[in-house]
Amino acid sequence: MILGVLLIAVTACGGGGGSDSNSGSDGGKNGDKGGSDQAESRTSQAVVTIAPKDGADDVDTNGALKISAAKGKLTEVKVADSKGKAVEGKIAEGGASWTPAYHLASDTKYKVQATAKDSEGREATEESSFTTLTPKNTFVGMFTPEDGSKVGVGMPFSLNFTRGITKPEDVEKAIRIKTEPAVEVKGHWFGNDRLDFRPEKYWKQGTKVTVDLNLDGVEGRSGVYGEQVKTVSFTIGRSQISTVDVKSKKMTVKRDGKVIKTIPVTTGKPGYETWNGQMVITERHEMTRMNGETVGYGGEYDIKDVSHAMRLSTSGTFIHGNYWGGDAFGNYNASHGCIGLRDLKGGSSSSPAGWFFDRSIVGDVVIVKNSNDRIIDPDNGLNGWNMPWDKW
User: Fold this and answer.
1) Which residues are responsible for catalysis (predicted)?
2) What's the Cα-to-Cα distance from 71 to each of 39, 124, 126, 170, rounded to whole Å?
3) Tens of pLDDT, residues 334-353
4) For 137-236, which CATH class?
């Protein structure tokens, strides 16, 4: 731009020198003034300001990047990291400023190019680069279900963070969930280290869920930043919802809304009643050990070969095979709170327990009703369905 001004000025002075001698002095002054006016007319009056300053390092990942225009309006802003990945953002109505849609990644160099136009349509462009901070303390989210899995209609997407979160809104904003077909999905915090997402009602079978975890650079608590960028996808399989009636001691299994089997069961005996409510299968074990010491019933039982066991709660509720129950199934309740199905020692695929195990997947729903116990807490397992949607 400076070179352009000098060239214009030289041309104007030369023109003055070419006129007659009586007008040489005045012609020179007029020529200089004319060159200045032309240069000024081509220079945009818009002023673009970029923060942080060019070359800055140790820049905060949230709130530090600000781009504004004075005496004009921003028309284009480009922000990208060293690999060319663009930063989403929006120019404010009126063109006075631009802000990023999300936080920036940590320990990353960014380049900025911003253009504004003044009232005459003349452009002014500024460029800058800076590097974000390198965190000393970090966190990640341990998630379920696994990437690529097929799960039942009751499966929420659950995150357990390795550090307690004191800035939940910033963390939640960094998690995006897309579903096909589209359905509203909301998150709910249990304490400061767990965040579950679910729709209002059970998932529709065949739904494809994609979760983008963009936690790198999110300040979850003072001085503690996320370091995780991952996409997790899972698919909702067929619908299987089984209802255990404690009074009748029977379980009705429905597949895609149709009853496919009724199975005699035994549930919690008096003093050890089974929880009421909607429970989600979170683990499946063909064989496991059950020791009363792990759930506060020390010395009452220690069974090393429990077959066809599927977890329903964190506190120790399972639906599992039972080879020691005698004639309890369908007749009386004899367990310490679990739901027992008849099985053979060592497990048998032809037994009621084996049949149910082979046809169940993680995320299937088991509903218990008519128990003398209360409804299970929503955070005891992946059982948020027991919380009304308006409180979720």
Assistant:
1) 320 (proton donor/acceptor), 338 (nucleophile)
2) 18, 11, 15, 33
3) 999 999 999 999 999 999 99
4) mainly beta
